[in-house]
Amino acid sequence: MERTFAILKPDCVEGKHCEEVLRMMLDDGFKVLLAKPVRLEEGILREHYAHHAQKPFFPSLLGYMTRSKVFLLLLERENAVAELRRLCGPTDSNEARKAAPQSIRAKFGKDKSENIIHASDSFETAEVEINRFFTKREIVWAKKPLRLEELKADVARLYG
Ligand code: CMP
DSSP alpha helices (H): ranges in the chain? Predict the structure, then answer.
C-alpha cells in the first residue's frame, strides 16, 4: 500500500469545500490516515516550496498559503501518488475544466494559483512531505482509516 500527502489549501477552506473534497477522495478509494487542521507558518512553506523560490509568483504563493487555515492529509491506497494527482487534475484549474472535468480542481479551483489542493508529485516527495508536516508521533499512530463522520468533526473545527 502506498502513502501520499495532500494540503487542502486556504481557498478550499474559505469556500467550505473540504467535506466534498474528502468525500470525492473516499469515493475514489483513498483511506485518510491523518487529518490535521493548521495555519501554516512562512518557514515551513519556504521549505515546502523551495523549488519555486525564484519564481515571480513566490511572494503571492506565500501570502495565499498563510491567509487562512489549511487541512493536512495523509492518504493511503494502491498507487496513491499517481491516483491523487489524477483526482486533483492539472495545476491550472481552467485547464482542469477542459482536460479533467470531474477532477477536484475542475470543480472547485479558480485558476493556476488558487487551485484548492496540493498533492505530492512522487513517492519520494510524499515521504519527505509527510515527515515535514506531521510529527513522528502522529505518523506512528496513523494506522486506522478515519471515517467520514470523524473527518466531518475535524472539518467543523477547521471552520469554527
Ligand atoms: P502546487 O502544485 O501545490 O505547487 C506550487 C503552487 O504554486 C501551485 O500548486 C499553485 O498554487 C502555485 N502556482 C503554480 N504555478 C503558478 C503560476 N504560474 N502562477 C501563480 N501560482 C502558481
Answer: 10-14, 18-27, 42-48, 58-66, 80-88, 93-99, 104-108, 123-133, 136-141, 148-159
